[in-house]
Specification:
two-stranded antiparallel ribbon, 123 residues, 5 helices
Length: 123
């Protein structure tokens, strides 16, 4: 992991701009940013994260295309109303279609029963 001022970028195949987009989505889900809240400017965020401004621009462009944020000319970027539920729906679908099947495959390979997982989850 590469530590960069309050954010860690993994050495995964995921581009840094997508990791930044994920971070903003996490902050929307957690309630840090609500509908129509202003998010940090490109410059503010790039300074905070110590990344190139173009990387943050790419992240914001991606989120704008996905209708998670919108731009008010001269004022900055804001959270699109309904973005939180949109992000949660997308992430739930991704989890159910990609992550969970891999978890089940690993459980079968390792002989881990659902009861063991439920017990661990409840504790």
């Amino acid at each position: 992991m590469i530590q960069v001022n309050k954010i860690e970028y993994s050495n995964s195949d995921k581009a840094i701009y997508l990791q930044i987009a994920d971070r903003i989505c996490d902050e929307i889900i957690s309630g840090k940013y609500k509908d129509d809240d202003r998010i940090p400017s490109v410059r503010e965020f790039s300074v905070f994260l110590e990344v190139n401004t173009n990387t943050v621009v790419k992240a914001y462009d991606f989120l704008n295309r996905e209708n998670v944020i919108y731009n008010k000319r001269g004022l900055g970027f804001f959270v699109t109303p309904g973005a939180k539920s949109q992000i949660i729906k997308y992430r739930r679908d991704e989890f159910m279609q990609h992550t969970l099947p891999e978890v089940f495959r690993q459980m079968r390979m390792l002989g881990i029963g659902i009861e063991e997982v439920v017990s661990k989850y409840e504790n």
